[in-house]
Structure formats: C-alpha cells, structure tokens
Amino acid sequence: MERWAITAAGLAAGLAAGTRVTGLAMAGVLTVAVVVLAGPGRRWAAAGWWFVPAFAGGAFWYLRSLVVAGNPIPEVEKLGPISLPHPERLQEGRPDFTIVHYATDTGVWREYFAPGLHEAFGALWPLVVFGAVAAALLALLRGRDRIVRWIGAVALFGAFAYLFTPLSAAGAEGEPVGFGINIRYVIPALLAGIVLLPLDRWFDPLKPHQILTPGERKSDAARLWGLMAGLTLVFVATNRPDEALHDGARVFAFGLVVLVVLLPALLLYLRSRGAGAALVLGAAAGLVVALIAIGYPLQRHYLENRFANDGAADERIPGMHLDAAYRWARGQEDARIGLAGTTAGFAGYGFYGTDLSNRVRYLGEDGPHGAFNAIPTCAGFRTAVNDAELDYLVTSPFLNFLHPGDPVESPEARWLRGESAVRPVERSGPVTVWKVEGELSPDACGPANAPLREVPQTPTP
C-alpha cells in the first residue's frame, strides 16, 4: 500500500510541476524527502515508484520545449554567464519582479502587498500566513518523527522559494499590480504548513509501544476540537460566509450541500451503525442518479450561456473590447476564424463558440528556437490570411498588460484598408470582426501600409 501512496503522490507532484514552472521548487524538495525517508536499501525502489508517475504527469512540456527550443525551461535565458537557447517572445508581459525585490519597500507593502493578502486571506491574513510558517518551523525543529520534520522542511522551502519566484511581484517598477493574482504561487506551501497545525505532541512525542490512557485521549480530543473551533472562528471573521445567505443561488447551494455532503455522510453513518449493505448501496446508487439528473442540465445551461454578455453590463474583460466579438462568436459553428493582434490571441478562448466547433488560429510566423512572431509586412499578412482559408478574421491591438484600457495599435486592421475581399461585420473600439469573402491581394499593399518594424513591448507608465 505504501508504494501505491508514493505513486499517487509522485503523479500529483508531476502534474503540479508540469502545469506550472512555479511548482518545480516544491516538487523537487518533495522528491528529496521521499528518497531520504525511504531508508537504506529501499531508496532505489522508492525513487522508481516516485519518478515514473512524476515524469508521466509532468515531463511532456519540458521535453517538448527541449526538442523545439533547445531549453526545457525557455523562460530561463541565462544561467550566470551562460546564455541558454530561448525563443523570442511575441510580446513581453508585466516585468517579472520578485517579492525580495521589494523586501524593504514599505510603500509597496502598504499599497500592494497588504491589500493583496487581505483580498486573498481576509482581515486576519497575518494569522493565516504566519500560522502556516510557524507550524512548518515547529514541525522542522521539534517534529515527533522524521516524516513530520520533512513535511515542515518542504513547506518552508516552498514559502522561501516563492519569495524569489519571478512574477511574484509582477508589474512596473514600484507598481506590482500582479502580486494579488500571483499569490496562488505560494498556496501549496501555505497548505503544507497549515495541515501541520492539528498535529499535537510535537513537544511530547509518544514513546515506542506507549498506550494513551482514557484521560489522555479525552485531552487530545478536546485540544483538537478546540483547534477546530478556533479555525472556524477565524474563517467566519475573515471570509464573511454569512454573505452566502443573501446570494440568489442560496437555495440551490443548500440543496447541493445536502446531496453531495450530508446524504453521503448519513449513509456512511448508517453503515457504521449496522445498516444492511444492500440498503446503503441502493441509496448510494439513487443519490448518484439524482446528481446526474440535476448536473447534466446544469452543465448544458452553462455551455449554452457562456460569454452571453447582453451588452448592458460592464465589460466582462475590462479594457480589451472583446465582449461584442465574443457575443458574435456564440452564433458561429464550424467556422475558421483567424486572430491578429495579441489582445485577441491572449484571450482567444471566447471565439470557439458554445459547442467548441470553431477552428481558431493566431496568424503569425515561426521563428528560431520555437518562437512564434508577429507577421511583419502587409503582403505577408495578406498571404497568411489566404493560406489559412479563413471564414472570418478578428483584428485587435497589442495587449497592454499594465494598462489594458490603453491598448497599443497593431497594424493588421490598417493593412486591410481598401481590400474588397473582406468586410467588417462587428466592431467594438479597436477590435473588428471581418468576413473573408475571397482571396486578398498581397500585391495591392500600398506605401501607406508600412511594415511592422518592431513588436511594441509593454509600455512603461
């Protein structure tokens, strides 16, 4: 059973590292912990049960990047004085400052870090953050066994690595506007620390073959229930769960809790009290049927109504002017749609339609080391539109990552001026949807259609 636990944990670590590069730090130190804790004579076996599923879950994109770009982590352009192969980026995002960069900047802590932590963890965010770190530190220093000590080390290492993670304080110098959304990078480390909170007897570990007396068991239970009550009070004070009582979907939510949590718990309780297996299994089967009967129409309702902004509300994606184009795409099926400009490319998911039958592609050209660059000339762009055999074309500006409401012009819409083979069917600000009705003429690009000499990077404030 132990090796299957190692296999499951290895697969989870691999999936985390394969999903985001920011998961590599904790996955790496967790790998060391597994091998060390296996003990002499069992480490090779433990490494096998760990590494095989970890590589299966997380190696694909790193191997692909190694083959295509010559670098398994193309974001890393240098190792000290050594320059590594890497693709040119179509457009830079926010500057990738780290938390450590602002370690002593009280203004940034006051204006960005503290509000971001408050938004993420509530008014008592120091209790959440420092509680997790303190629990991990206590586990490392005074843990009752090696496993607890290593869990503490893993949590602390993950939190420490987060402080040096690029983009953890993303944004222009002095304005880390990306800090709040990128707090998610430290969530695994905080969770690893928080799960250590209920572990008692750190300072009074059990001796071999020691048996607790009834009084000690009651004392342990009282401490655990007290901890649970304290954490519940923290949750209520910081997250205002009572606001859910005023939500329009509260009746459905309560019903879902009954079906998914309370009824299964009741079935388990009845089984533990001697209820017949046939009765419990029959009730469980009925519960599964009820969940399917309720869940399927809800799924269809969601799929049919996504991106259905009626135009009366504020923009769903502020500053990008894509709402009208998304609404248009909801009515398209099996259409070939081309995207130009990094705004449409970055948020291209809304063009696949409600049944995901539209074929969507960003128009660009291949570059060295796996790069995918903007097409630099009017003639080249028109040729690319012809080669893609499009039904529709969406032109948009370059995305201003720091200030989305102030986009940077991209030349593709200008390159279509005077072209009779396309006509606009939807416009919203700088975003236009064109119907492609024939072959575009690359030779008709006039002197006004100047080439794109340089992809504009993120403007500074």
What topology does this entry show?
Blueprint: H1 2-19, H2 24-38, H3 43-58, H4 60-69, E1 78-79, E2 82-83, H5 106-121, H6 125-142, H7 146-163, H8 187-194, H9 214-239, H10 250-272, H11 277-305, H12 323-330, E3 336-340, H13 342-346, E4 359-362, E5 365-366, E6 372-373, H14 378-388, E7 392-395, H15 412-415, E8 422-428, E9 431-436
Parallel strand pairs: 3-4, 3-7
Antiparallel strand pairs: 1-2, 5-6, 7-9, 8-9
Helix pairs in contact: 1-2, 1-3, 2-3, 2-7, 6-7, 6-8, 7-8, 10-11
Report on the structure:
With 461 residues, the chain is of the alpha/beta class. Among the domains are: 92-204 and 226-236, no CATH class; 242-305, no CATH class; 323-444, D-Maltodextrin-Binding Protein, domain 2 (3-Layer(aba) Sandwich). It has 15 helices and nine strands. The chain is globular.
